Request: fold
Amino acid sequence: MHPAPPGVSPILYTLLVFVHIFVTMVAAGLNASYVIWIMRGVKNPASLSFALRGVKFIDDYVANPCYLLGGLTGLLMILMGKPVAAFLWVAIGLYVLAMAIAYGVYTPLLSRQIKTLDALGPDHPDYQALARRSNQIGAAMGILVVIIVALKIFEPPLW
Ligand code: HEM
Reply:
């Protein structure tokens, strides 16, 4: 259960927790689908551009906005009086890092990857290097989200 902080309407708080978990669940689930789309595109190069553009559309217009809404609802829970335990500070730190990488690195990298694919094709070394880097960055962000969820569920006593 998610007891509401003192003086806060339990219905309102539970609704906030529901939205928080739902939007971060949708974002994490969509992120996990990127690997499938990209692998299908690699197996069938004629559809690679379509697959990468699909991943970029999902990332820009659904996954990242869901993560932002997740951050906002999380902040609202804290402003309503939810105590911030050590694990939650670590989770918030990892969230800020993941969002900085998402907007500062992954989004522009994916744009360059799509442009380079269109210009040079899937077999060109420049495209291959960009594809490798964006897969590595994508995997790193995935690991950050898994650690955040684990911190939230296990609530380890850190300090
Ligand atoms: C990738 C980002 C995030 C994910 C996947 C995530 C996921 C979750 C999950 C699954 C829970 C429920 C845990 C449980 O049932 O005990 C939770 C609770 C919570 N999250 Fe997040 N969260 C994220 C980011 C944030 C951020 C950025 C904040 C704060 C700014 C935040 C604040 C909270 C709070 C306060 C709770 C406790 C709700 C309660 O039990 O009363 N979360 N989060």
Summary: DSSP finds four helices and no strands in the chain. The longest helix spans residues 86-120. The chain has a mean pLDDT of 97.
